[in-house]
Specification:
1 helix
């Protein structure tokens, strides 16, 4: 039996008090222990590899292979039947590359995953 996070998710960014689409995440290859070696983030048409690990059934850690490498850490904040919501934040692995991509003073917004 697969981990409960082994699903297709919709990714969102919370910007200016609004959820804005950030693509789809395929975590269906996550095993029952919560390990993910070969997931995919379809970031509005551009596809990137993601890997990660769950701690128990509430905490999710993902590593993104996007041009600016980042770690995504989230926690399950809502679960009712088939509906789940994970809310988290992004940590840049390569701070120098992140500086080149981000404008001065920009804060990365919280990210949200929803299922279905």
């Amino acid at each position: 039996m697969a981990h409960k996070f082994a699903e297709h998710w919709t990714s969102w960014l919370f910007i200016n008090n609004q959820l804005r689409p950030n693509g789809k995440m395929d975590l269906t290859k996550m095993d029952e222990q919560g390990d993910l070696a070969d997931g995919e983030h379809d970031h509005n048409g551009s596809k990137y590899k993601i890997s990660g690990k769950c701690s128990g059934d509430k905490y999710l850690h993902l590593d993104s292979d996007m041009p600016v490498k980042a770690e995504l850490d989230g926690v399950l904040v809502h679960e009712c039947g088939e509906t789940m919501i994970v809310v988290g934040k992004k940590n840049y692995i390569d701070k120098e590359s992140a500086r080149l991509e981000l404008t001065t003073g920009q804060d990365d917004p919280p990210w949200v995953l929803t299922k279905p």
